[in-house]
Amino acid sequence: MKLKQIFSLSMIAMLIFMMTACSNSTDETASKQEQPKAAEEVKDLILATTTSTQDSGLLDVLIPMFEEESNTNVKTIAVGTGQALEMGTKGEADVLLVHAPASEQELVDSGDAVNRKRVMYNDFILVGPANDPAGIKGMEVGEAFQKLFNDGAVFISRGDDSGTHKKELDIWKSHEITPGDNAGYAETGQGMGNTLQVAAEKQGYVITDRATYLAQKENLDLEILVEGDEDLLNIYHVMQVNPEKHDKVYSEGAEEFVEFMINEETQKVIEEFGQEEYGEPLFFPYTE
């Protein structure tokens, strides 16, 4: 009798074990089936660009578009063009969006940048107090700069090796003028937005890109006095930092960003940006 009881108990225990094992196996299989696939890794892309593109608000529109379609997190560093280009030479950025063509070409020639593409343009303008104490309104830009210097007018420069600063220095140089010899000449060492604010506070003259001026016009007591000269064209290019020379750059993301900036959809966004708010576009498409 005891043997039969032991045998019965053993069979029951075995059945319970088998049922539990099957249940666990089924649960594990179901669990595996329910688990979602691992999300694709989001990579960081370092964009070195100018304060003018940042201050205009254009990047606030374009960057989210790119991040959504590329599964990339863009880290934007807005500095003067000179600093942005220097980041390229050191491999500290993946892609550059800048506006100093001659300096950009030097970067390409040195092999630090590749895949340079023209993206857009606007223009530089000379703005100043509404009462225009130096009387430069409507002058050709070189004539206006000469008059400002001769009159000792207050002139506020970015002084930061940006594309705008480079353009300003080129104009002074082309007329053989040393701007620092004017007691009214001052450098901020800051971006375009802050420099415009300083010029407004001091009621001085300043050269600026049109986009930043329009974006901040409501907060400035400054008017456009000189515009339209061919020499004031402001061209923006995008380019990759060369992965063959700087092996830590995210080359795939940089190439994707270059293509994004020149594609038809992005170019349309650039063309329409600012029209509704300012009554005119802040940039114009300019691909090649």
In short:
47% of the residues lie in helices and 21% in strands.
What does this structure look like?
The protein has 288 residues and is an alpha/beta fold. It folds into two domains: 43-121 and 235-285, D-Maltodextrin-Binding Protein, domain 2, CATH 3.40.190; 123-232, D-Maltodextrin-Binding Protein, domain 2 (3-Layer(aba) Sandwich). Helices cover 47% and strands 21% of the residues. It has twelve helices and ten strands. The protein has helices at residues 2-34, 51-56, 58-70, 81-89, 101-109, 141-151, 163-174, 192-202, 210-216, 251-262, 264-272, 275-278; strands at 43-50, 72-79, 95-98, 113-128, 155-157, 185-187, 206-209, 223-226, 233-241, 284-285. Strands 1, 2, 3, 4, 7, 8, 9 and 10 form an eight-stranded mixed beta sheet that branches. The chain has a two-stranded parallel ribbon with strand order 5-6. Helix 7 links the parallel strand 5 (155-157) and strand 6 (185-187). The longest helix has 33 residues, at 2-34. It is globular. It starts with a helix and ends with a strand.
Q: What is the average of the pLDDT values?
A: 89
Based on CA inertia axes, which overall geometry fits? globular
Give the % helix.
Answer: 40-55%
**Strand count:** 10
- Write down the domain tally: 2
Strand content: 15-25%
CATH architecture group name of the largest domain: 3-Layer(aba) Sandwich
CATH superfamily of the largest domain: Periplasmic binding protein-like II
Using only C-alpha atoms, the radius of gyration works out to: 30 Å
Quickly count the helices. 12
Distance between the termini: 98 Å
